[in-house]
C-alpha cells in the first residue's frame, strides 16, 4: 500500500497510532510499528527520563520506524526534544503549540516533523513553518481538541484543498471503512487513537479500557474550552464540571476544579469517578480489547475488502 505517507515514514500501511497521554508507551508503539503502522510514544504524560526509558525500550522491541508525540503546551519541552535527538528518534509529531517554534531545529537534526491541527488556518501555518506532513484532527477526536468544532469529514477536504504536503486524517476513525472514507476525501493516511486505547498493549488502566468498550454514542462531550478543549466520557467529574459551569466560573475556578493529575487519575490509575476519561466519539464502535497487531490487521483487511467492493 505505497503512497506519500508510507514513503515518508518507511512503513507498510498509511496508519499512525496516536501518541495519547497515559495510553501510548513503548509497548503499544512498538506493537503497532511491528504490525506495519507507525507507532508513537506519547511524551505528554512522561517526565523526561521516563520518556528516555520508553524510547530505549521501544528501540529494543522493534526495528521498524516509530516516533514521539510532543504536546508543546507541557513543560520540559526543551529537555524532551534533547532526549529525542540524543536517542536518535527520527520522527516527531508536535501538537498544541506553534509549529514555528521547533520545526526548523528538528529538521536540521534530520528529524521528520508532523504537526497536528484542527483548522485550515493552522494547517496552512504549519505548512509555511516547514513541516513534512499535517494531521488534521476533527471534532470527533478524543483528548485535547480544537475549539472550532469542525468535523473530520468537513475538515479533511477543506485542508486538502489548501495543502501540497501529505495529509493525515484523525478523529472518528477506528475501522477500515473509516480509513477508506478519510482517504477518499483526500487524506494520504490516518491517525487512530481511541481504538488503540482498548488494546492489550495500551498503558491505560483496565478499568478505563473496559469503560471505553462500554461507551455508546452521546457518552462523550467536548468541554473545558477556556483552558484546553478536551473530549471526555461523561462521569461524575464531568457532571461536576457542568454544575460549575452554571455559575459562570472564571478560568481560575475551572483550573482549580481540574487540579493536577486528573487525566492520570482516570486513564492510568483507573478512577472512573473522579478521573478525566479522554476518548473519542468513535468509542461507540469499540467493543472488545485485543492485541494491537490484530487491530491493525482487522482495519487493513476491512479497508482492502471495502475498497475492492467499489472497484
- Spell out the helices and strands N to C: HEHEHEHEHEHEEHEHEHHEEHHHH
Might you state the CATH topology name of the largest domain?
A: TIM Barrel
**What is the highest CATH level, the class of the largest domain?**
Alpha Beta
CATH superfamily (homologous) name of the largest domain: Aldolase class I
> Taking Cα atoms only, what radius of gyration do you get, to the nearest Å?
18 Å
Query: Taking all residues together, what is the mean pLDDT?
Result: 95
Please tell me the total number of domains.
2
Portion of residues within helices: 40-55%
Largest sheet, described in full? 8 strands, parallel
Low-confidence residue ranges:
none
SS-derived structural category: alpha/beta
The count of strands amounts to: 11
- The CATH architecture category of the largest domain equals Alpha-Beta Barrel
The number of helices is: 14
Would you summarize the structure shown here?
With 311 residues, the chain is α/β, with parallel strands linked by helices.
Structural summary, described in words:
The protein has 311 residues and is α/β, with parallel strands linked by helices. The protein has 2 domains: 4-203 and 283-309, Aldolase class I (TIM Barrel, Alpha-Beta Barrel); 216-282, no CATH class. The chain contains 14 helices and 11 strands. The protein has helices at 4-9, 26-34, 48-61, 77-86, 103-108, 120-129, 152-162, 176-184, 194-197, 206-214, 236-245, 251-258, 262-268, 292-309, and strands at residues 15-17, 39-42, 66-71, 91-95, 112-117, 133-137, 143-144, 167-170, 189-192, 220-223, 230-233. The chain has an 8-stranded parallel β-sheet with strand order 1-9-8-6-5-4-3-2. Strands 7-11-10 form a 3-stranded antiparallel β-sheet, with no helix packed on it. α4 links the parallel β3 and β4. α2 (26-34) packs parallel to α3. The model has no long low-confidence stretch (mean pLDDT 95).
Amino acid at each position: 500500500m505505497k503512497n506519500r505517507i508510507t514513503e515518508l515514514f518507511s512503513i507498510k500501511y498509511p496508519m499512525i497510532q496516536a501518541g495519547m497521554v497515559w495510553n501510548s508507551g513503548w509497548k503499544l508503539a512498538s506493537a503497532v510499528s511491528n504490525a506495519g503502522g507507525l507507532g508513537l510514544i506519547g511524551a505528554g504524560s512522561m517526565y523526561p527520563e521516563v520518556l528516555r526509558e520508553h524510547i530505549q525500550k521501544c528501540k529494543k522491541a522493534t526495528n521498524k520506524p516509530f516516533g514521539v508525540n510532543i504536546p508543546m503546551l507541557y513543560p520540559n519541552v526543551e529537555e524532551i526534544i534533547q532526549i529525542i535527538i540524543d536517542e536518535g528518534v527520527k520522527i516527531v509529531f508536535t501538537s498544541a503549540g506553534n509549529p514555528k517554534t521547533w520545526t526548523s531545529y528538528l529538521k536540521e537534526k534530520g528529524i521528520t516533523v508532523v504537526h497536528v491541527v484542527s483548522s485550515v488556518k493552522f494547517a496552512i501555518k504549519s505548512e509555511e513553518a516547514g513541516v513534512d506532513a499535517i494531521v488534521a484532527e476533527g471534532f470527533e477526536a478524543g483528548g485535547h481538541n480544537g475549539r472550532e468544532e469542525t468535523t473530520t469529514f468537513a475538515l479533511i477536504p477543506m485542508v486538502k484543498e489548501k495543502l501540497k504536503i501529505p495529509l493525515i486524517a484523525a478523529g472518528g476513525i477506528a475501522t477500515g471503512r473509516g480509513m477508506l472514507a478519510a482517504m477518499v476525501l483526500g487524506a494520504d493516511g490516518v491517525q487512530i487513537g481511541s481504538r488503540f486505547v482498548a488494546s492489550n498493549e495500551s498503558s491505560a488502566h483496565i478499568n478505563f479500557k473496559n469503560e471505553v468498550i462500554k461507551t455508546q454514542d452521546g457518552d462523550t462531550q467536548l468541554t473545558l474550552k477556556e483552558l484546553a478543549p478536551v473530549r471526555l466520557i461523561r462521569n461524575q467529574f464531568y457532571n461536576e464540571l457542568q454544575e460549575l459551569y452554571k455559575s459562570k466560573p472564571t478560568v481560575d475556578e475551572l483550573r482549580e476544579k481540574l487540579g493536577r493529575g486528573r487525566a492520570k487519575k482516570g486513564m492510568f490509575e483507573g478512577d472512573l469517578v473522579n478521573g478525566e476519561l479522554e476518548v473519542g466519539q468513535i468509542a461507540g464502535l469499540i467493543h472488545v480489547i485485543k492485541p494491537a497487531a490484530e487491530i491493525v490487521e482487522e482495519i487493513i483487511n476491512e479497508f482492502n475488502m471495502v475498497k475492492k467492493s467499489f472497484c
